[in-house]
């Protein structure tokens, strides 16, 4: 799993039928403090995340392992909303 921050939404009125009804969010990788760094990915939201939230997401075949995304043509899925991160004995992020 990877840490990311939701930085936007993606709207697509024309898409593969298997993606109908799925929420697309724009996620940028994040550091242990929840600060957005790295590349952008479009991820399917499986947990009800929103813009600004720090999330855990997966890519590749793991992205198709949720009830929401099973057997769907997706490459990135948000699997959790982060409440807190502790790194090397210090709380580095709190929601």
The low-confidence runs, each spanning 5 or more residues with pLDDT under 50, are none
CATH superfamily membership: EutN/Ccml
CATH architecture: Beta Barrel
Strand content: over 45%
Computed structural class: mainly beta
Overall geometry comes to elongated
- Cα distance, first to last residue? 19 Å
Under CATH, the topology is which? OB fold (Dihydrolipoamide Acetyltransferase, E2P)
CATH top level assignment: Mainly Beta
Radius of gyration: 13 Å
Annotation field: number of helices: 0
The multimeric state of the shown protein is single chain
Widest sheet, order of strands: 1-2-3-5-4
Overall mean pLDDT stands at 95
Helix residue percentage? under 10%
Number of spatially distinct domains: 1
Major sheet description:
5 strands, mixed, barrel
Order of helix and strand elements from N to C terminus: EEEEEEE
Number of strands: 7
Features:
about 100 residues, OB fold (Dihydrolipoamide Acetyltransferase, E2P), about 50% strand
Structural summary, described in words:
The chain has a single domain (2-94), classed as OB fold (Dihydrolipoamide Acetyltransferase, E2P). 0% of the residues lie in helices and 49% in strands. It contains no helices and 7 strands. The chain has strands at 2-10, 24-30, 36-45, 54-59, 76-81, 84-87, 90-94. The chain is elongated, with a radius of gyration of 13 Å. The mean pLDDT is 95.
């Amino acid at each position: 799993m990877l840490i990311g921050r939701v930085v936007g939404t993606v709207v697509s009125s024309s898409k593969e039928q298997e993606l109908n009804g799925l929420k697309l969010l724009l996620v940028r990788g994040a550091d242990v403090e929840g600060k957005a760094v790295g590349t952008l990915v479009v991820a399917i939201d499986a947990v009800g995340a929103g813009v600004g939230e720090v999330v855990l997401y997966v890519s590749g075949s793991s992205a198709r392992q949720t009830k929401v995304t099973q057997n769907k043509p997706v490459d990135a899925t948000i699997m959790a909303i982060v409440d807190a991160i502790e790194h090397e004995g210090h709380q580095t992020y709190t929601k």
